[in-house]
Amino acid sequence: MDWKPSVGMTRRRFVTSSAAVLAASGLARDVVASQGQAASARSPFRVIIDTDPGVDDALALLLAMRSPELKIEAITPVAGNVPLELTLPNALRLVEIAGRTDIPVAAGARAPLVRRLVTATYAHGENGLGGAVFPEPTTKPIAEPAAEYIRRIVRKYPHEVTLITLGPLTNIAIALSSDWGLAGMVRGLTMMGGSLSGGNITPAAEFNIYVDPEAARIVFQSGIPITMVGLDVTRKTSLTEEHVRVLEAAQNPVSQAAAKIGRNAINHNRERGFLVGPNMHDSLAVAAFLDPTILKWQEYYVDVETAGELTAGETLGYSPVAGDLKRRPGMEKDAAASMTIRGSAPTLASTKTSPVVRDKFVPNTNVAVDVDSGRFFDLLIGRLAGQ
Ligand SMILES: [Ca+2]
To answer: Strands of 45-51's sheet, edge to edge?
Structure first.
């Protein structure tokens, strides 16, 4: 399905989402500037944060809960870094730490759509918070399951809700699959996930997409305007001792919790022999939504490998102006119009006769291709420290 305004999309929404894509592409800094002014004057952006806390999820959630630009309609934990039995109470702990028990937390999927759950306790510790221990939460999740709640909130505020996803995309895929009109009502989706430059759990795949490639494919093909903050940029964000010291010096519950999680994560990385601190993957996705000018952007058609024996979860970015396909200025537009999207050659046993999966290039994703790490950490540490 090519991305185009769905039938139910209002003109206002199309203009808004186009402006966001333009702005985020870095092609129109004045648009960004005017949006920034508008953002401070306008009412906060409605978001739902789908997450699998997770060390970097924890800091991302604290950042989001400290950001006045956001009206967080829900936090929806999913199985990923650790099982749901841990991501759910971790999310509840974090809303308590931030004093934000007003935010509904809805339990999500226990397992990917069609695969066995693979976790990342090697990176996030057995408790998902890098071994940092916090009291048992007393707050309870709402009764409604995550996918149903996501669906209800998006329908309640059509074209207003942005999904910020920090884990495997199972909850979102279930919501979209249960309601085919839903995708056209979502304002946008900003994900930490994917990579156009190799994976972290396999050479091909980034963890979030690897865990549930079938869900990711549903999301990428849904028509929702997607902003992808993947390993291409998150690898450039390492938490340092200095960051943790600033957090420790700030005397408030959020900075203290972030410092504790950060210090544990740095020590854990060191024990595993890494030369740099842990990457702040998920916080960068939240920051990208708050201030897209921190990153550089390029439009791609992105699809997900689901059939690979070794490569499931790989994200493929097609672009008529990337890599070897780069053309002379002036010829780029023609290249886009004539570029077909090609998959693997059909096998003799296949009913398919052509490798062409799309007859022309239409971007579905704005991909972050570079980041100003200094500005990112100024935002992250500044807000967590309460400056
Ligand atoms: Ca995560």
So the answer is: 70-77, 45-51, 161-165, 188-192, 226-229, 365-371, 295-304, 315-318
The DSSP 8-state label assigned to residue 187 in this structure reads: -
Q: How far is CA 188 from CA 43, 149, 167, in A?
A: 17, 17, 16
Give the Cα separation of 50 and 215 in Å (integer). Answer: 13
Calculate how far, in angstroms, residue 111's C-alpha sits from the geometric centre of ligand 1.
15
In this structure, what DSSP letter does residue 217 have?
Answer: H
Model confidence over 160-211: pLDDT tens digits? Answer: 999 999 999 999 999 999 999 999 999 999 999 999 999 999 999 999 999 9
Q: Give the model's pLDDT for residue 41.
A: 60
Q: How far apart are CA 43 and CA 45, in angstroms?
A: 7
Ligand 1 centre from 120 Cα, in Å? 10
Q: How confident is the model at residue 12 (pLDDT cuts 50, 70, 90)?
A: very low
One-letter amino acid for residue 284 of the chain:
L
Catalytic residue among 124, 159, 268, 281, which? 281
Report how far residue 284's alpha carbon sits from residue 379's, in angstroms, rounded to the nearest whole number: 10
Number of Cβ atoms within 10 Å of the Cβ of 161: 23
What the block records as the tokens of 344 is 């693997």
How far, in Å, from the CA of 338 to the mean position of ligand 1? 37
Q: Is 124 a catalytic residue?
A: no
CA angle 305, 307, 311 (to 5 degrees): 55
Count Cβ atoms below 10 Å from residue 151 Cβ, excluding itself.
20
What's the pLDDT band for 297 if we cut at 50, 70, 90? very high
Q: Which two tokens stand for residue 3?
A: 């991305």
Asked if 272 and 174 count as a contact pair (C-beta separation under 8 A), the reply is no
Query: How many degrees, rounded to 5, is the angle at CA 221 between CA 216 and CA 227?
Result: 70
Q: Which residue has the tokens 């870095």?
A: 26
Q: How far is the CA of 342 from the centre of ligand 1 (A)?
A: 31
> DSSP class of residue 340?
P
Adjacent-strand bridge partners of 74:
48
CA of 55 to the centre of ligand 1 (A): 8
Token pair in block for residue 146: 């995550």
Expressed in angstroms and rounded, the spacing between residue 226 Cα and the centre of ligand 1 is 17
Does residue 48 sit in helix, strand or coil?
strand
